[in-house]
Amino acid sequence: MTNKKLCVHAWHNQLFSFANYDERVVEIKEDKPEHEQEIRLRVFKPLSKEAIKALPKKLIKAEADWEKTNADLEKAYVDLKKAETDWEKTNADWKGKEEWHKKYCGCKEWNGKELVFD
Predict the structure, then answer these.
(1) What b/e string do you get for 76-105 counting C-beta neighbours within 10 Å, with b at 16 or more?
(2) Is the pTM of this model over 0.90?
(3) pLDDT score at 1
(4) C-beta atoms surrounding 38 within 10 Å
């Protein structure tokens, strides 16, 4: 959770959550409708130590667990996209593909790039 702090009103539908304050301010200014920006920027702020201590510990732990799992998911998605790109490149570069297709399938509907239905 690099540079993330427990904040109030980071998003419209969550009372509090972990957020990178500076990044979220930029997002609000760049991505949110102009008529929402003043309110969003005024109410969005990091929680004080006192406010955090007043939250149920179980709630804070659940939020932290969610953040960690979400970060793991984002990393897995990056890894998945890399593997997909590698697979597509390897498939495209495979020189014996048509010979393999002819030997093991042999259908006439494959034109070397896709199935043809007409």
Answers:
(1) eeeeeeeeeeeeeeeeeeeeeeeeeeeeee
(2) no
(3) 46
(4) 10
